[in-house]
Amino acid sequence: DVKVTQSSRYLVKRTGEKVFLECVQDMDHENMFWYRQDPGLGLRLIYFSYDVKMKEKGDIPEGYSVSREKKERFSLILESASTNQTSMYLCASSEGPPTNEKLFFGSGTQLSVL
Amino acid sequence: GDSVTQMEGPVTLSEEAFLTINCTYTATGYPSLFWYVQYPGEGLQLLLKATKADDKGSNKGFEATYRKETTSFHLEKGSVQVSDSAVYFCALNGRGYQKVTFGIGTKLQVIP
After folding, report:
1. pLDDT per position as a tens digit, A30-54
2. Interchain CB distance below 8 Å, A4 and B43
3. Which of B109, B101, B106, B110 is nearest to B37 (CA)?
């Protein structure tokens, strides 16, 4: 069965800390995505990657960076966590074009920044 | 840019009631349209999709028809069950793009 695994289900961090969220997929997918999910705002795209070492900004990249050194792993980095980054973070992957339409999601990481 | 509009809810229905969740979109070209579902404590999973005008997507008793003339993709189910309680997201993917745009999600609660 296909799988997208996020390293932590819950995470509590302090303001100013550097935070790493890890995501691994076992489907050999080319595309990987990081979304944040907030009540009333739905899912918003932070960054995506369409190949190893390639990345593109999404709709809300400020305060975040990403790393994709290997095809199966896509990391989201909060350089200096702030309270407004408290959110549910969802990782997803999809096949490369032209069949890149279905997204496979991980279970999410609920991050609390205190 | 692309956008998806849906009501946030919550929508509360009794078991066996008819469900409609409205979704309208704005996009250039001819996007593919999707409904994703998120059960409590889980990530999103694809429920159904339609890739061209007048296509009907269906799965698990849910249906949605791609209406280009009204730019809509409303989700329907004839008889909901308690197990359908979840958050439902309408989404679109513009042709040739890897980015998927989501609506805000509609929470459905089905009571026995």
Report:
1. 899 999 999 888 899 999 998 898 8
2. yes
3. B106
